[in-house]
Amino acid sequence: MAESSFPAIALNASGDLPEAVYESIVQQIEEGSCVLFLGPAAITMRMSGGAYKPVTAACANHLVRLYGLQLSPQEADSLTYVTSLLLNRSNERVADIILRREVQKFYAEWSSKVQLPAFLEQLADLPFRIIINTTPDDYFAELYGSFGITVRRGYYNFDKPDAEDPLYTFEAGRAPLVYNLLGYYKDKPQSMVLSYSDQLSFINRITGQQNEGLPNSLLKELDKPVFHLFMGFDFEDWSLRVLFNEIFKHQRKNMQPFAYKPQNSAEADAQSRVFFQGEFGMVFPETDIEKFINTLVQTFKNMKSRPAPAARPKGKYWCYTMKMPMRTASRPFKNTLKPCRLPLPPSKTASARAISKPGYAVWCSAATWY
Q1: Of 1, 253, 331, 349, whose CB has the highest number of CB atoms within 10 Å?
Q2: pLDDT tens, position by position, 5-55
Q3: Are 16 and 286 a contacting pair, CB within 8 Å?
Q4: Mean pLDDT, rounded, for 177-191
Q5: Cα(352)–Cα(356) distance, rounded to whole angstroms?
Q6: Among 186, 38, 40, 181, which Cα is nearest to 109's?
Q7: pLDDT digits (tens, 9 = 90+) for 211-223
Q8: Helix intervals (H) in 111-138
Q9: The pTM is what?
């Protein structure tokens, strides 16, 4: 069990973070020391009936209808389960190519008409420098573009990792990076982590040879003492434990992660909570994603609207000159001058008393600006 260097965070009576913690998160975001992680349940799309559903679940439903599968609602909403089942039922090599093409077609078809929830749009108001996306689409990055915000994009290809590090930098003023951790449907559909087999291959890659893992420039940034916001993750997913262990293996004591779930979704089970709390110091507020984002954005706006601290004005100072004390009663003062600058006092006499010392002679020599 890792002991965090961060003080324990106590939730308030409503199960939410105190206002001071919200302000700390906002400050860390502005300083580039807070990373946003978007899980599959965070990227949701408006369906024909008006309800919102995770995009990955909508893609899984599409495959279920396309191939005539008879599954329970829970099974039909799991893209990992559905793709693994289809691969198990046919020639895996051929099926993998066809399946990736179908997933790619689904994301391409919806890219121009997808409607993300309003609370995700609010995230564009916050100056995150790194957003880690764990779905194969670019809908969140496109959302930034719809507001005229330039973003940098990157993704990891577990099938054939790039040998060259893109050498990402994250200084103030640079466009934020939206990084697709589990692949990208457009450029290389084979980079998408879809099935259980893909999950194993992905884990083997990022924990294997150094030149096959995630970019060092990105990992270096994640190693800094920062806050992490995890939205829409299934903490009962076994692969998430291995992923956390790899990404944060050098940073467990210097991180403060927070986990938020979608509205009306189930809490993480007790075993998962104990694991992530004990190993990574994860805080599980009772607040859902939408309420958290609303509060965070409002806190950001409130802090922005506060008047900036007034600059210290130039003031008038008295310059005092002091002669050093006599060494003996028979010797005169040593003619060494020592200037002292103090704020302009109510009177010369009061200030002389304030700085005088036994054996020193004090004179006010001049008034000047500093």
Answers
A1: 253
A2: 556 677 888 889 999 999 999 999 999 999 999 999 999 999 988 899 999
A3: yes
A4: 96
A5: 6
A6: 186
A7: 788 999 999 998 8
A8: 118-122
A9: 0.80
Q: H or E stretch including 132?
A: strand 130-133
Strand, helix or coil at 367? strand
Beta bridge partners of 319: 341, 366
Write down the residue that tokens 């700085």 correspond to. Answer: 355
Is residue 203 within 8 A of residue 9, CB to CB? The reply is no
Q: Please check the confidence at residue 59 and state whether its pLDDT lies above 50.
A: yes
24-27 contacts: CB < 8 A, separation 24 or more? 24/227, 25/227, 25/229, 25/258, 25/296, 25/299, 26/126, 26/296, 26/299, 26/300, 26/303, 27/303
In the prediction, which pLDDT does 311 show? Answer: 62
User: Average pLDDT, stretch 225-247?
Assistant: 92
Can you read off the two tokens belonging to residue 213?
A: 């893992």
The whole-angstrom separation of Cα 245 and Cα 293 is: 27
Q: What is the pLDDT of residues 60-106, one digit of tens each?
A: 999 999 999 999 999 999 999 999 999 988 766 668 999 999 999 99
Cβ neighbours, 10 Å, residue 97: 10
Give the helix ranges, DSSP H, for 248-358.
Answer: 270-280, 289-305, 348-355
Closest CA to 80 of 109, 119, 110, 54: 54
- Measured in residues, the chain has a length of 370
The tokens of 344 are what?
Answer: 């302009």
Place of tokens 């006010």: 364
